[in-house]
Amino acid sequence: MEHPYGYIKDNKVFLKGFLGKPDREIGEVKEDEASTIAYFEDRFEQIKEKVEKLKTDIQENQNKGSFLMKLIHLRDSLYASDALGDFVPLIEELNQQENYLNEIIQSNRAKNLEIKKALIQEAEALKDDTDWKQTTEAFKDLKMRWIKTGPVEKEIQEEIEAQFNDAVQHFFENRRHYYEGMALQAEENIKVYEALVVQAREAHDLPDAKMAFEISKRIQKEWKAAGKVPAEKRQPLWDEFSRLNNRIFSRYKRTLNPGPQMHPREVMKKVETLTEEIKKLASKDTSPELIQRAKEIQQEWRKLPPRKPKDANLLARSFQFFSDVVFEKAFLDKLIHNKYSNFDGKSPQEQLQIQTALLKDLLHRDQTEYETAQDNSGNFRVQTGDFEIMMKKKLFGLKRKVDVKNHILKQLSQK
């Protein structure tokens, strides 16, 4: 059976070649030839509707350039579509639309270049100004305007960015030296931290994850360069600042590696299942088979999306705690067998006494280390947030080691 744009041969449906492409098999006859032809013609009508919808979207939206990749993908898909119809006009139409979008993009980039050159001139005029407060506000405004301005041609992007950043950096370096030399009061420095927190909030609310990440990197550098303030005033600001930047980084990381896509209910169910299973393992005596299963459970946990529902937070902490219990019991068992070669030959009561004594000794060491670290952490007066984060993580880790050993000790006492 013949068709203007295809034919049926040996019970198979073929699309005639176009634009240098050979004839291509697109399906087979299911019931009869007429209904089969109608089916593939309907598919072509659906493709035409997609093309028309894309054209309408381009015309009705202000940000037309954002449709370029969608257009290219749609046009490429036409060459492999299983449908009967005249694809050439559709492809030509999309080619015209691509030229139209490229012209808009080129025009926009030319306008962006003019705007960014003007911003560079403003930055150059301000970079040696010593009215620190007013000029700092002016540079904040300049940087936000720079961020909101779209890209320029890739060939000059790096050069333009460097010119602007050099002027900005020049001013902030001068300002930093001035504040250091004049040793301004701590309350003035507090304003710098507060302004950085405001910038962190603004960056956190930006829809563009990469842009927010770039701002986050910059303001973290500025935070480290800011002056001294009393710890009790700085800490609340740091807590919010670090929390916002951590969220910005997590969001940016997810854009690079989004991980498996799961519905929140599926994630919660999996979290509950894995936590319950590791909890059951933590209540049993250690064995090679138990440890192997615990490792498999941890591997399953790592496959879960990094961003979990809020309801999973408590379960996640429980999962970590009982995982530590499982492997701490395995470590204790290995330590005992290395120290007592005839341990398995001893009575259950003797075994329990040995386990309890050794565990109490390890617990005492951990408790002492934790208390010492607590005391020492209050004696440090540092300016970097990285050090404070490190100390918090260390204290949290030591506290969990103590809690894990207390939990195992309680299990032993109930035997």
Automatic annotation (TrEMBL):
Pfam short name (any one): DUF349
Superkingdom as given in the UniProt entry: Bacteria
Keywords: Coiled coil
Coiled-coil parts of chain: 37-64
Protein name: DUF349 domain-containing protein
Lineage start: Bacteria, Pseudomonadati, Bacteroidota, Cytophagia, Cytophagales
